[in-house]
Amino acid sequence: MPFPPVEASEESVTVVRADAEAADATLDAKFGEEPTSLGYLLALAALNGMGLTGQGAEDVARAMLLELLAGRDITAQVLMPRDDAVRLFGQKAKHERVPALVVLDTLQEVVTELEVGIVRRTGQRTGAGVPEDQPWLFVVASPGAAAERLHRIVQGGMEDLILGVFLGDWPYGITCTVDNSGAIRSLEGRSAPAWTGRYLRTCSQEAAARQLLT
Asked: Cβ of 65: how many Cβ atoms within 10 Å?
């Protein structure tokens, strides 16, 4: 079944083009040494959110999360439900506190927090149109029954620095299918870039838990 059409804002398209170039440059320079997925993440998530599917989806999601939480290139906060935190990082994620990672008990709580965040950030926009002194806010979750509400949140999220990365198909934006080596096997959705065959960083649950929770 084809994906429904998705309208990307002019601002989103501008960001995507800029980050697409950054992603190419970064991976070309570092692949084989320390490949990064951050440019790809920003570019794809800006197209009304991105979903990750395929055998390598969880490993790619873990690697992206570690890059975001490291805060080397952008200042970001990650919001996710507890079940997905355990899915990606294991049982220790139930109890550990990690800077810039906010784990809430349920997906419903995550959605509510995002909706409150939009209202708060809208009131803090500067003359440039973005919230003042606010980090990027990423929601990482299995969308399930909350998909429609999450779509509404990320649809205009670029203006409020709110983006979504979803574990599973994401028919409202881009669905990225990756194999267990991190290779992009397909990109589906309107305005999907021609990045099939590119490699994204991967990280096993054991390695991610060791880096994040110790």
From this structure: 25
- Using CA atoms, how far apart are residues 150 and 147, in angstroms rounded to an integer? 5
Token pair in block for residue 143: 């969308």
Residue type, 126: T
Q: What is the dihedral of CA 82, 87, 89, 91, to 10 degrees?
A: 70
pLDDT tens track for 107-134: 999 999 998 888 877 666 655 555 566 7
Rg (CA), the chain: 16
Q: pTM for this one?
A: 0.79
Secondary structure letter of residue 203 according to DSSP: -
* Contact criterion met (CB below 8 Å) for 161 and 130: yes
**C-alpha distances in Å from residue 73, one per residue of 27, 60, 111, 148:** 14, 18, 26, 30
Distance CA(130)–CA(79), nearest Å, equals 20
Specify whether the CB–CB gap between 177 and 53 falls below 8 A: yes
Q: Which domains does the chain have, with CATH numbers?
A: 10-213 (3.40.50)
User: Look-up: residue for tokens 């995002």?
Assistant: 114
Q: What is the pLDDT of residues 84-102, one digit of tens each?
A: 999 999 987 777 788 899 9
DSSP single-letter state for residue 94 = G
**CB-based contacts of 212: which residues, under 8 Å, 6+ apart?**
65, 66, 69, 89, 96, 98, 101
